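User: quick one, fold this
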Amino acid sequence: MIPTPDYRIIYPLRISKSRIAGKGAFAIQTIPARRKIGDLGGVIITMREARKLIRNKKVINLVELDDDLALNASANPNDIRFINHSCNPNTYMRVLKDRVEFYALRTIRKGEELSCDYGETHHEGTLPCGCGAVNCRGFI
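Assistant:
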C-alpha cells in the first residue's frame, strides 16, 4: 500500500439512509456550483490488489487512478465514499495521479443527497441501477 496524500472534506456531509442505495451522503449546507466538495479518503493499492478485492463483490469503494494503481476507499475511508451513483448526478469526480476529488456540478441544496455518475465500473453494466432518474440507464 502507498500512503495517500492528505485528503479533506471541505463541505461536511451527513450520512443517512439513501433512496438510491444503502446509506448516502447529504449536504449539511448549500454547496455552490463548481466548488470542490472534498477528496475521497482511502489508500492507494496496485491494480493487482484491486482485482482481488472486487471478485464477487457487489459493493466496493474503489477508483482506478491509472493502469497500475487504484484508490481503495474501503480502507482509511471518509464520508465521501457514501456518494451514490446516479444517471442524473449533482457532483462529478476528478481522478488525479494520487487522489480523487469531488466537485458540485450545480448548486446542491441543504439536505439534498449527493450523487455522481460512476461511469465504467467493474460491474460492466450488469448491476441494476437504483437511482430513479428519468434518464436512468438501468444498469451500472
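User: anything notable?
Assistant: The longest strand covers residues 13-17.
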